[in-house]
Amino acid sequence: MTSTDDRPDTAAHTSGDLETALARWREALGPEHVITDDESLADFADPYAPASFGYRAKVVVQPGSVEDVQAVVRIASETGVPIWTSSQGRNYGYGGSAPLDPDTVVVNLRRMNRVLEINEELAYVVVEPGVSFRELYDAVQASGKKLWVDVPDLSWGSVVGNTLEHGNGFTLYYDHAAAECGMEVVLADGSVVRTGTGAMSGSKTWHLSKRGFGPRTDSLFMQSNMGIVTKMGVWVMPQPDAYKDCQIKVRRDSDLEALVEAFRPFLVDGTVGNCPILFPALTALPNGLPRSAVWDKKSSVPRELAEGMMWEAARIGAWNIRFALYGDRQTVERDFERISAAFASIPDAEVTGNTIDPAEAKLDSPALADQKSRVMAGVPDLSMLQVLNWHGTNGGHISFASTVPLKGEDVRNIVELVSTREAEHGIDYTVGIMLYQRFAIHVALMLYNVGNEPQVKEVYELYRDLVVEAAEMGYGEYRAHPAFMDLVAEQFDHNDHSHMAMVEKIKDALDPAGILAPGKQGIWPARLRTAEKQA
Ligand code: ADP
Q: Is residue 400 part of a domain?
């Protein structure tokens, strides 16, 4: 499906027998947990898409237990009504709870919000899907156990939803999919499956050993539509002896490549074990400021203007890295010296660090100076939402998130591609580049005013062009809003899309009625695949 809209347009599409499904869900869950009134539904729409785009469900059901989830999927299968799962449903840059098709019913799991276990000795937790990062942080704090929860930039989303979508945070356990250990999943036929060693009744290692006996299947339920996850084990970080909040800045844009090249060895060899963020001056500019206070023209804010302003106001460089060191205090200080020395050859480069007592890693601690100090210490924060003020009170964004090799040349390529193409449309280049151990995710935050529909349409169109242009350079997207899932999936085309063909076989076997999140990640059930694809 390459049209401007990824929704199915085949006659085969059907929303099943919704009236029967509604009656049976009301009976199974209680009528108050089947939401159909506009006011309540608004909380499950994509708030960053204009209403006319249709990214909002007409029905939301909220099961409160595993048995409820089983009942929900069985009723969906039997009545042919497709369902789309969300846990908190707040990953708004990627659509929130909104399904691809408004006739798909949202199954939202906010009611299933118990923290089932917090284990200090072996440093893991077990959560239900509705538990938000903030709630998990609060539960760990209340337990008095010396553990750090890895939180993403915004802590209102769920641990499970973020992990399933390959989200990241900023401590040593930043790669959430990698920190997952042992799930419980309800399949489309209502059966309950435990992954890893959890497949053995009475297993004592379900949340400790990721591998069971045979293939590891956890990834089948990540960025997919193969089941509904109802429990998850997550490894967490023991509170370290020392935490050093560090930054590197270079004054000139032309130093970007040298910055990445000098920093890479410390990621590859594990000296820096967290997920540092690389960002330009322009990214720091919108934080709370309205655009009108900075630039009154339609054209995008010139880089040089942002660089000048941010250097003067906050000593923020043309490019900056925030990273953290954790562990034994002497080792941390020694590593910091080694890292600092590596930047001596870049003129005017500055490396600074602030060693913070980990016991201070708490909400409202004055030791944690800003948003990044907090999230690198696993402390929840919502202040990044201020960036939405950039285009007035009705701000929104989509995230264009490409993966590139951790090399100066490749980082430069994606920076130039996105910033140049955005400038052609008067879109300001705000980006956070997450540095993984061997690759980077360039997350361009495309900001707009949701009330300015032509502007949002232009951003969506640009996004489409960029998906293709980035793929031609060898850079794929790591995550996408439902509006672009088909297009992104199409870029993964090796050997005539043989990977998708394999995934479709699994989908058909696990969900023969095709009721779980049709179209998610470009995976369509057989009944909704185009004739061309089925041939
Ligand atoms: P968050 O909780 O971070 O706001 P969401 O609840 O919006 O994230 O979840 C993001 C996406 O992850 C959803 O659109 C859905 O595709 C998938 N997802 C979330 N929770 C589950 C779950 N429990 N089982 C299966 N898929 C899920």
A: yes
ipTM: 0.98
Q: In the prediction, which pLDDT does 170 show?
A: 97
Compute, in angstroms, the gap from residue 330 CA to the centroid of ligand 1.
41
Q: Which of 338, 294, 330 is nearest to 430 (CA)?
A: 294
Closest atom of ligand 1 to CA, residue 482:
14
Asked if 293 and 419 count as a contact pair (C-beta separation under 8 A), the reply is: no
175: domain CATH number?
3.30.465.10
Q: Which of 55, 94, 429, 475 is catalytic?
A: 94
1 found inside a domain: no
Q: Which of 48, 83, 87, 113 to mutate to test the pocket of ligand 1 (most atoms within 8 A of CB)?
A: 87
> Would the CB of 229 count as within 6 Å of ligand 1?
yes
- Give me the pLDDT at residue 92, please: 84
Percent of the chain, pLDDT > 90?
Answer: 79
Indicate whether 222 and 265 sit together in one domain.
Answer: no
d(CA 86, CA 227): 12
The predicted structure's pLDDT at residue 13: 52
If one counts every other C-beta atom within 10 angstroms of the C-beta of residue 523, the result is 23
Summarize pLDDT for 69-92 with one digit per residue, the tens.
Answer: 999 999 999 999 999 999 999 888
CA trace torsion 270, 274, 280, 283 (10° rounding): 170
Distance 342 CA to ligand 1 centre (A): 41
Distance (Å) from CA 224 to ligand 1 centroid: 10
Low-confidence ranges of the chain (pLDDT < 50): 1-4, 10-12, 532, 534-535
Quote the pLDDT of residue 534.
46
Total domains, the chain: 4
Q: Is 463 a catalytic residue?
A: no
Nearest CA to ligand 1 atom 10: 161
Q: What is the mean pLDDT of the chain?
A: 93
Q: State the pairing for strand pair 147-148/319-327.
A: unpaired
Residue 146 CA to ligand 1 centre (angstroms) = 28
Establish whether residue 160 lines the binding site of ligand 1, counting it when its CB lies within 6 angstroms of any ligand atom: yes
Query: What does the alpha-carbon distance between residue 319 and residue 159 come to, in Å, rounded to a whole number?
Result: 31
